[in-house]
Amino acid sequence: MRFRKTLDALVAYKPGKQTVAPDGTAYKLSSNETPLGPLPSVREAIARAAADVNRYPDNGAVALVERIAARFGVPDSHVAVGCGSVGVAEQIVLATAGPGDEVVYAWRSFEAYPILVQLTGATSVHVPLTEETHDLQAMAKAVTDRTRAVFVCNPNNPTGTVVGRAALTEFLDQVPDDVLVVVDEAYREFVRDDDVPDGLTLYRDRPNVCVLRTFSKAYGLAGLRVGFVVGHEPVADAVRKTMLPFTVSSIAQAAAIASLDAEGELLDRVQDIVAERARVRDALLSYGYDVPPTQANFVWLRLGDRTPEFAAGCDARGVAVRPFGTEGARISVAEVEANDRFLAVAEEFRAA
Prior knowledge:
By secondary structure, this protein is of the alpha/beta class. The chain has helices at 40-50, 62-72, 84-96, 112-120, 136-142, 165-174, 199-202, 233-241, 250-261, 263-287, 307-316, 336-351, and strands at 27-28, 79-82, 102-107, 123-128, 147-153, 180-184, 209-214, 227-230, 298-301, 319-320, 322-324, 328-332. A 7-stranded mixed beta sheet has the order 2-8-7-6-5-3-4, sandwiched between helices. The chain is globular, with a radius of gyration of 20 Å. The termini are far apart.
């Protein structure tokens, strides 16, 4: 069999794993999921939609697009949906880049970016983080005539760090008008820093800027896979063209609409995660860890060579975290008992 040469060097995406302690307990802090299930009204919408799964979903997701547009005060024509924000990111890369082109992003950042770029035959341009966050000046300098898209993950995954309004605006002013800037805001609902701009306030007068959002994190629909992009019509049109037909299921569409209808209740639960985030970070700092400020639903520990040992220690206690080679580990903020178990392991590891 003859497969594409690009697959030879491709490292497949590895999702966060689950682990179980000898006593049978298991806490999954490796995938940045919310520990809270869908609200009752959302479960009811899912059940109703399940009755019609013998039919294809609305390929244009018209009702969902209209609801998203109304919620965020943008034209319907500026909204396109896909299979989670990562699915929409793939659609964007397919629409903008190919062999000979370049896509710029910070590194380390979302681990799917290099996979998506490599599959198109384009080249990734990694710009190292500075103090665990985007070096926007270096990223601006990395843009060349071959650059077709730039991803800015804000808050950044896996570090949780953010770039502020002034820095991001200055960066956008430097990027050529024919290069698409994708502001990836998968964790926007967890942001409490007033200096972090809402990307939707920046894209309106910038045709080369679009904003990625997802229902997987704060809205608790990770298992249903629905995300969206907001951008000017040429961007949204291009994203629709590269979507695999019927990607967003009828159940996912119904659940996303119901989640928007119950958004106030959902965001109250997000505040509980934000409070736990502060508690977890404060505890880690008190143990002597260097933990960058985070505006997402996870914390980042740069552990270097001790990363595998730390992850193995967590596994042994039934706590699955997300190690990144010998760089560090990302730990999702979850329910209180899960966070307490993780903190106990982290304190023991630090003391040892």
